[in-house]
Specification:
This protein is mainly alpha-helical. The chain is built from 13 helices and 3 strands, in the order ααααααααααβααββα.
Length: 263
């Protein structure tokens, strides 16, 4: 029965019949828990990973791909290498701090040039190093974009890192040129505008876009409120220091001649 389900799941995955896949996938998981044939489990888990990827459930996809990879590796199937790339891709998109190469199975392939390129991509993403990400993707010798499945999720990956970098760029400014941001992100001004709109609508930044002048104007009310809080705290500290100083002077007056703080 597991073999039949595995074949049907493969068919559903190839023809993108997601509804049927979601219906039979839980049934196969219950069966595979009792019947451990790594060849069938690998196929089922890989399809499950792709199902979760289509739903943007990155962590679930990572777990499924990793199980598929381990079972492919156990049977010596050449799919292990491709699925390990999917493991890294899902790991990147999930924002997980887990390093896939901490596992014994993944370490076997970590020196493979294509796997190493995916590992470097993961590291650059974590460091918000958008220039390295662009360089790795555009370098044909790494063959990252040759896998059509991975290539389909690259726009999502790029959008995610650009939003992260964009938040960091905008942070210190009360106004900033859209052209300057576009240069930093290696994208068009139109793309910068779209990304900024996402951040504004998600309430991640309080700002408005002046498309005529070509500037992002950060709401000064927030900055003023922040400055007011800082000033209030500094005033409180100053008052406390003055109180302590007065207390010390009072004690010195009571115990003997006052010793000046400064000669």
């Amino acid at each position: 029965l597991v073999e039949v389900y595995a074949l049907e799941i493969q068919c559903c995955t190839k023809v993108h019949n997601v509804l049927r896949l979601k219906d039979i996938y839980p049934k196969t998981i219950n069966l595979t828990s009792a019947i451990a044939d790594p060849r069938n489990i690998a196929v089922i888990r890989e399809s499950g990973g792709k199902m979760f990827m289509s739903d943007r459930k990155w962590t679930d996809a990572y777990n499924e791909f990793f199980e598929a990879f381990k079972n492919y590796q156990e049977t010596g199937n050449v799919r292990a290498k491709a699925v390990l790339k999917y493991v890294i891709l899902a790991n990147i998109l999930s924002g997980s701090s887990i390093n896939p190469f901490d596992s014994r199975e993944a370490k076997v392939l970590q020196d493979d040039p294509e796997i190493a390129a995916m590992s470097h991509l993961r590291r650059a993403y974590e460091q918000n190093d958008i220039d390295t990400v662009d360089a790795l993707l555009s370098n044909k010798k790494h063959r990252i974009l040759e896998d059509e499945y991975i290539a389909g999720f690259i726009p999502e990956l790029l959008r995610s890192i650009r939003l992260q970098v964009l938040r960091n760029i905008v942070g210190p400014y009360s106004s900033i040129s859209l052209e300057f941001i576009a240069t930093r992100l290696n994208v068009s001004v139109t793309e910068v505008t779209n990304l900024l709109m996402c951040l504004i609508l998600d309430n991640q930044i309080d700002a408005r876009i002046d498309e005529i002048a070509g500037f992002l104007m950060v709401n000064s009310d927030d900055k003023a409120a922040t400055d007011a809080k800082v000033f209030s705290r500094l005033s409180s500290w100053a008052d406390e220091l003055e109180r302590i100083d007065g207390h010390i002077l009072t004690k010195l007056t009571r115990t003997g001649p006052r010793v000046p703080f400064f000669e």
